[in-house]
Design a protein that fits this description.
Radius of gyration: 33 Å
CATH superfamily of the largest domain: TonB-dependent receptor, beta-barrel domain
Helix content: 10-25%
Number of domains: 3
Number of helices: 10
Largest sheet: 10 strands, antiparallel
CATH architecture of the largest domain: Beta Barrel
Distance between the termini: 93 Å
CATH topology of the largest domain: Maltoporin, Chain A
Length: about 625
């Protein structure tokens, strides 16, 4: 009886396995004209990772169960669903809605159905839910052929944007144009919530109207306008916390001691540590467990980040308005709690369109006049540590510091034997009498008044320093103000002939304030012999004037457009910087409040003109 039951169970298992077994299906994907669709995605519905891509002939091979459903997708075509069968022939139909979508191209707009150049569009719906800090971060994974990589983990740090790869060994950044105005310095000033759409012009045909400036691609940004109807008030708020998701594996104190002994013995020297299993730290205290985990000390876990956005928008027959304000603040996960790595941005925007005249129902000439007035302002404050460097940076030092070193000096005898001497300005003879003075230093201390450990005390670390001591030094403060005004007029001259005038500007002011409040000593390679204050400021003023005539005509299924335009631009930039030694009051660090001179005050001016006819 037991044998029969076992045979029956085995038969049932074999039957179930046979039913669940997947088969291999082949097929071809064609468009409505019978041409093969290259690169279409064939996916098993509801199953991640189970799919295929059609080849140059539209063919594909996929493993699936006969009862499952295949979903076929391709940009510009409607999705198709089908149950797998032998020698499938699938025809995709064009998505007319997608083809009717309007994209910005240079000095106008066109339907996707008539655009032959390589243009990628990212709409406000695509950006919804991403909550990017910067506009360039918003492009990640949303535009084909656009590679966006983070420069570093610094709060507010810009991304490296490359359109179809690196185009030159020098500056490969694309040309950024916001509401028709070329913007210098990237898109840091833009609040991502103010964006209506982003178009990326990727080839020579689409960017030809911008000339050589479009060699690395063009990114066109269109900001939002109001929608017809009553006023809409929107407020978005988010608050979160950030922590390092992974830490580097480093050796414990015991493993470190063993390796150091092996290195010394193999080099013909005496072992560094007498007993790797009975270690004492730089304060003479017994080390238990891992030792000093410098990464734990450096990382700022649960660093806060907050974002506030409010907008008021609406439109009527006479006015279209969009007003917004954004505030973003982020604390860095390395040095943020020391004031070393932080980012704060305040942005204001006002987009207004006024209909001065509309007599289109009465006549077909000089019948409509619109005036557009835009204003954007952004203020950014930030501090930052050295990034992408293993030599002398906070994080690089944290990875290289020995786990046998204590972060601070708590042993009074150790402090007196070496640290106190560094802070003593007197020179003594053999009897202990003062015979002169010398340069002295101030060793950074923690909140409890303990010296931070100098790593050179336990060996040569060269440019590596105690990362906690490094973060106790006042950070340089970066600041910037940016104004982007725009004034334009649209006048309907005759029938489909329209005149457009635009005056826009990009006014940027930025700089850095830093000071050295003490004659600190971090190591033999990192020390200061004077207090000082340093200040630098830059100014960039760009303006652009454009006049265009556009004629659009549609006859039946055919349409054509003619554009005649003139554009003129001027760029001017200034730089001024200087510094002084010997602060009178370290609590009021200022170049004007110092007694000595240091370095050379520098100033530079750069001017460029450009004009073109399109």
């Amino acid at each position: 009886m037991k044998i029969k039951s076992l045979l029956l169970a085995t038969a049932l298992l074999m039957s179930t396995s046979a039913l669940a077994q997947k088969n291999t299906f082949k097929g071809v994907v064609l468009d409505d004209l019978g041409e093969p669709v290259i690169g279409a995605t064939v996916q098993v519905k509801g199953v991640k990772g189970a799919g295929a891509i059609t080849d140059l002939d539209g063919n594909f091979v996929i493993d699936a169960d006969a009862n499952q459903t295949l979903v076929i997708t391709y940009i510009g075509y409607k999705d198709a669903e089908i149950h797998p069968s032998a020698n499938m022939k699938i025809t995709l139909k064009q998505d007319d809605k997608a083809l009717d979508e309007v994209v910005v191209v240079g000095y106008g707009v066109q339907k996707k159905s008539v655009v032959t150049a390589a243009i990628a569009k990212v709409s406000t719906e695509d950006l919804a839910g991403k909550s990017p800090v910067r506009v360039d971060n918003a492009l990640k994974g949303l535009a084909a052929g656009v590679n966006v990589t983070s420069s570093s983990g610094q709060p507010g740090e810009g991304s490296k944007v490359r359109v179809r790869g690196t185009g030159t060994i020098n500056n490969s950044d694309p040309l950024y144009i916001v509401d028709g105005m070329p913007i210098e310095g990237g898109l840091d000033y833009l609040n991502p919530s103010d964006i209506e759409s982003i178009e990326v012009l990727k080839d020579a045909a689409s960017g030809a109207i911008y000339g050589a400036r479009a060699a690395n691609g063009v990114i066109l940004v269109t900001t939002k306008k109001g929608k017809m109807g009553k006023a809409q008030i929107n407020y978005n708020f988010s608050y979160g916390w950030q922590s390092a998701w992974k830490k580097r594996d480093v050796t414990s104190a015991t493993d470190y001691a063993i390796l150091q002994n092996e290195r010394a013995v193999n080099g013909g020297q005496a072992p560094v540590f007498a007993d790797p299993y009975a270690l004492t730290d730089s304060n003479g205290k017994a080390i238990s467990g891992f030792g000093t985990d410098w990464q734990d000390l450096v990382f700022n876990d649960n660093a806060p980040v907050q974002n506030h956005e409010v907008s008021i928008s609406g439109a009527s027959e006479k006015i279209n308005y969009y007003l917004s304000m954004g505030y973003y603040k982020q604390e860095g996960i390395v040095g943020g709690n020391y004031g070393q790595s932080n980012y704060e941005r305040l942005s204001l925007r006002s987009n207004n369109i006024y209909n001065v005249m509309d007599a289109s129902k009465e006549r077909n000439f000089l019948n409509k006049l619109d005036v557009n007035v835009n204003m954007a302002y952004t203020r950014v404050k930030s501090t930052g540590i050295s990034t992408n460097s293993e030599f002398g940076s906070v994080l690089g030092s944290a990875l290289y510091m020995a786990p046998t070193l204590a972060p601070t000096v708590t042993d009074g005898n150790v402090a007196k034997s070496y640290y106190d001497k560094l802070e003593d300005p007197n020179v003594y003879d053999s009897e202990g009498k003062v015979i002169g003075t010398r340069d002295f230093y101030e060793i950074p201390r923690d909140a409890n008044g303990n010296y931070y450990t100098i790593p050179g005390m336990a060996g040569t670390y060269q440019e590596m320093n105690n990362p906690l001591a490094m973060m106790s030094i006042p950070a340089a403060k970066n600041w910037s103000h940016k104004f982007v005004p725009k004034f334009s007029i649209d006048l309907q001259l005759w029938d489909n002939l329209k005149y457009h005038f635009t005056y826009s500007a990009d006014l940027s002011f930025w700089g850095t304030d830093s000071y050295v409040a003490s004659k600190y000593y971090l190591s033999g390679n990192n020390k200061q012999t004077h207090t000082s204050a340093t200040k630098s400021s830059s100014k960039g003023i760009n303006w652009q004037v454009e006049n265009t005539l556009t004629y659009d005509k549609t006859i039946g299924k055919h349409s054509f457009a003619v554009v005649l335009g003139q554009s003129a631009m001027k760029n001017k930039s200034d730089y001024l910087g200087g510094s002084r030694w010997n602060l009178v009051n370290v609590n009021k660090p200022s170049i004007d409040y110092a007694t000595g001179n240091y370095g050379v005050t520098s100033k530079s001016v750069w001017i460029r003109h450009r004009s073109s006819l399109v």
